[in-house]
Design brief:
By secondary structure, the chain is of the alpha/beta class. The protein has a single domain, classed as TIM Barrel (Alpha-Beta Barrel). It contains seven helices and seven strands; from the N terminus they run αβααβαβαβααβββ. Strand 3, helix 5 (86-90) and strand 4 (95-97) form a beta-alpha-beta unit. The protein is globular.
């Protein structure tokens, strides 16, 4: 997979779950060119479960992006000590958040889980950090940070007006958040009609 992604000049996106798979992938990256080859290619580790602290320097060295799924937090898995968010950010490793729930997607539930980290509260991140990981972090993960991920002149006007202030409501209220207006590329794609 590594050689093929280099040959085709494709971004490598890997489902990595468990310490052994993360270590094996990092070993393979080192053997196939190391930092000089991989640091700028933004290899993505989807899930990243099993990423223990000893692997963080290697992840950083290879320029790997961690795409975490907060829906996995709070399930009481035995690997709770390997579920890191705060440590990833502290190590200056790019973090993106996404949903892997398979059912109804609720980013506000994920923000609640990321900012409380029920299995491991010491690894919780702030709501602001979670929103940045969801927006700018995810745009960076797909090489799209110049077009989207933040509201600045020249970027796509992707935005939503929310039913409540997600930075001040009690954590348990976050999943009740709804969009009342959604814009994609500056065009309204959803309007609940409450702002008229």
């Amino acid at each position: 997979m590594l050689h093929e992604s280099l040959k085709e000049n494709d971004q490598l996106i890997l489902h990595v779950s468990g310490y052994s798979s993360a270590a094996a992938m990092l070993d393979a990256m080192k053997l196939s060119g190391g930092k000089a080859t991989w640091a700028g290619r933004r290899v993505r580790f989807e899930h990243g479960d099993g990423l223990f602290p000893d692997l963080l320097p290697r992840v950083k060295e290879m320029g790997t992006i961690m795409v975490q799924n907060p829906a996995h937090l709070g399930h009481g898995f035995k690997t709770a000590k390997a579920r890191q968010l705060r440590s990833i950010l502290a190590a200056n490793i790019p973090l993106a958040l996404g949903s892997d729930s398979g059912g109804a997607l609720n980013p506000y539930l994920d923000i609640m889980l990321a900012s409380t980290s029920p299995d491991r509260p010491s690894e919780a991140i702030t709501r602001e950090q979670a929103v940045i990981a969801y927006t700018l972090g995810s745009a960076y993960a797909e090489f799209a940070e110049k077009e989207k991920g933040s509201l600045v002149p020249g970027k796509l006007a992707d935005l939503t007006v929310l039913s409540q202030d997600i930075f001040s409501v009690p954590a348990a209220e976050l999943p009740k958040t709804e969009s009342v207006l959604t814009m994609v590329g500056g065009k309204i794609v959803y309007d609940a009609g409450v702002l008229h």
